[in-house]
Write a structure and sequence with these properties.
Bound molecules: alpha-D-ribofuranose, calcium ion
Strand order of the largest sheet: 3-2-1-4-5-6-12-9
Structural class: alpha/beta
Distance between the termini: 23 Å
Largest sheet: 8 strands, mixed
Shape: globular
Number of helices: 12
CATH architecture: Alpha-Beta Complex
Strand content: 15-25%
CATH class: Alpha Beta
CATH topology: Inosine-uridine Nucleoside N-ribohydrolase, Chain A
Number of strands: 12
């Protein structure tokens, strides 16, 4: 089977960084056509820089990195420095990037790539707010049917919210973009908090990254050491939840995950529940299924894959 062609749309973010490292370490499974940065965890000028920092950490400076939208489609930007630190990549001290940022806007790169590659052969792996994706769909509706699949980290049902009582951060930041995406008709796989909160970097798992004794392994251990504070304090978790690596791991080893094909709608009207993913997990409506909503994973298998692959870098 040839490697899956993907575009990684991202707002690094320590967990985004681990997801990108996993993809770049897996050429037999994944061909990264480009990385598109979006405003989210931190402002765009940092997410586009951090994406390049991660490519250089992986030694993959041939992967083109593009800057996309610097704010949501119809709202003020909300960022998450309280989780990721001022730089968005707090934890390790990594050098400023030397590799260039591409001149082309990320949205135009997404559109051009979907028009150039054979229809149905490009997967969008989305690790942040859906602003770039929805903007591309609005600007060039012809590309929607050319998307092979969207695999995204976002939303929640049983876990409800992490940025508000009812909403997960990526969806909360740009609910209008999420609504456009979930109504697009594209084959969507959702990795919500319900599954990512089961992917916790416990101390033995953090030690396994550090024991790789490679720049990438040590950086991942330092990133997750920093990143776990928020969730430990809020949820009393036994480590950082590796949200975004669930996206690239799903692409490589879907058998590690389980879920249901259900209807998911996005709340955009209410201030109280803005960004909530209203997931019909129990099938109580006749709303048509529009997403595969993942609820569980083999956590040990997930971390074994992560350590093996990141150990290659
Ligand atoms: O809610 C978690 C998600 O929001 C992750 O993608 C994290 O990186 C932030 O973007
Ligand atoms: Ca992210």
């Amino acid at each position: 089977m040839p490697p899956r062609k993907i575009i990684i749309d991202t707002d690094p973010g320590q967990d985004d960084a681990v997801a990108i490292l996993l993809a770049l370490a897996s050429p037999e499974d994944i061909e990264v056509l480009g990385i598109t940065a979006v405003a989210g965890n931190v402002p765009l000028e940092l997410t586009q820089k951090n994406a390049r920092v991660v490519c250089e950490l992986a030694g993959k400076t041939d992967v083109p990195v593009f800057a996309g939208c610097d704010r949501p489609m119809g709202r003020q930007l909300v960022t998450a420095e309280h989780v990721h630190g001022k730089t968005g990549l707090d934890g390790p001290s990594l050098p400023n990037p030397v590799m260039p940022l591409q001149d082309q806007h990320a949205v135009d790169f997404i559109i051009d790539t979907l028009r150039r590659e054979d229809s149905g052969t490009v997967t969008l792996c989305v690790l942040g707010p859906l602003t770039n994706i929805a903007t591309a769909f609005e600007k060039a509706p012809d590309v929607i049917e050319r998307v092979q699949q969207i695999i995204l980290m976002g939303g929640a049902y049983f876990e409800v919210g992490n940025i508000t009582p009812t909403a997960e951060f990526n969806i909360y930041v740009d609910p209008e973009a999420a609504e456009i995406t979930f109504k697009s008709g594209v084959d969507i796989v959702v990795l919500p908090l319900d599954v990512t909160h089961k992917a916790l970097v416990t101390q033995p798992r953090n030690d396994a990254f550090r024991d790789l004794d490679t720049p990438s392994g040590i950086a991942v251990a330092q990133m997750t050491d920093f990143f776990e504070r928020f969730d430990k304090e809020k949820y009393g978790s036994s480590g950082a939840p590796l949200h975004d690596p669930c996206v690239t791991a799903y692409l490589i080893a879907p058998e590690l995950f389980s879920g249901r094909h259900i209807n998911v709608e996005i709340e955009t009207q209410s201030d109280l529940t803005r960004g909530m993913t209203v997931a019909d997990w129990w099938g109580v409506t006749d709303r048509p299924a529009n997403a595969t909503f993942i609820g569980d994973l083999d956590a040990d298998g997930f971390f074994a894959l992560l350590v093996e692959r990141i150990g290659r870098l």
